[in-house]
């Protein structure tokens, strides 16, 4: 049994990637679609294009018995993001967390279940206190249960290269996402620039 567990753990570590060497499933950021196809061993599913982004999808098993899709995202033809889509069970999220924790250390950001339940209880307590004053107030809807663990992983030159997130949302598929950190930063900056330019345009509409 221990040998079986060891082999499963070794398999998962290989699949989840050796990101310290900037490798995930034998890939690295900036590869082309053809290069990814050449190294990916899972069953090919489809290719699609949305705007200036291309996607490749493959299917296999990251955890025994759990059908898994892996999606590769390309921006201007270059690999920038990899996402595993697992099943909807919270147990699967709980299964992968210790594996990632052992491999990458403690996450820099996280949302755990007790925080969600605490927020829900505090909100309901406020409603009860208001009701005690004779005011009618319905209980708020249940706080959506979504959990995450987030890491920033260093590359071969001890620079932060990759953003990693393990994510669970009630009713949706668990995901493990790797994203090129520089690409992510540029996306966020672009969003800020768009908001800033939008505000500027509104404030200066009289000049048009």
List keywords for this structure.
208 residues, alpha+beta, eight-stranded antiparallel sheet, 5 helices, globular, disordered N terminus
If you average the pLDDT, what whole number results?
79
Which structural category do the helix and sheet elements fall into? Answer: alpha+beta
For the termini, the CA-CA separation is 73 Å
Described by strand count, sense and barrel closure, the largest sheet is: 8 strands, antiparallel
Strand content: 25-35%
What coarse outline follows from CA principal-axis ratios? globular
Structure overview:
The chain contains five helices and eight strands. With 208 residues, the protein is an alpha+beta fold. It has one domain (2-199). Strands 1-2-3-4-8-7-6-5 form an eight-stranded antiparallel β-sheet. A hairpin with a 2-residue loop joins β1 and β2 (53-63). The chain is globular and about 70 Å long. The relative contact order is 0.13.
């Amino acid at each position: 049994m221990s040998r079986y567990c060891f082999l499963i753990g070794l398999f998962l570590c290989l699949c989840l990637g050796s990101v310290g060497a900037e490798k995930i499933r034998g890939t690295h950021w900036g590869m082309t679609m053809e290069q990814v196809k050449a190294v990916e061993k899972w069953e090919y599913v489809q290719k699609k294009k949305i705007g200036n982004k291309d996607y490749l999808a493959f299917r296999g098993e990251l955890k025994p018995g759990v059908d898994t899709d892996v999606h590769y995202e390309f921006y201007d033809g270059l690999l920038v993001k990899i996402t595993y889509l697992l099943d909807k069970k919270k147990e699967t999220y709980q299964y992968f967390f210790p594996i990632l924790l052992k491999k990458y250390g403690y996450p820099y950001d996280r949302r755990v279940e007790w925080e969600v339940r605490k927020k829900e209880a505090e909100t309901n307590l406020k409603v009860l206190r208001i009701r005690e004053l004779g005011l009618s107030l319905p209980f708020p809807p249940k706080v959506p249960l979504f959990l995450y663990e987030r890491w920033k992983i260093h590359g071969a030159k001890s620079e932060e290269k990759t953003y990693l997130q393990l994510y669970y949302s009630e009713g949706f598929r668990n995901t493990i996402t790797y994203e090129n950190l520089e690409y992510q930063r540029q996306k966020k900056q672009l969003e800020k620039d768009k908001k800033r330019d939008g505000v500027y345009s509104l404030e200066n509409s009289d000049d048009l």
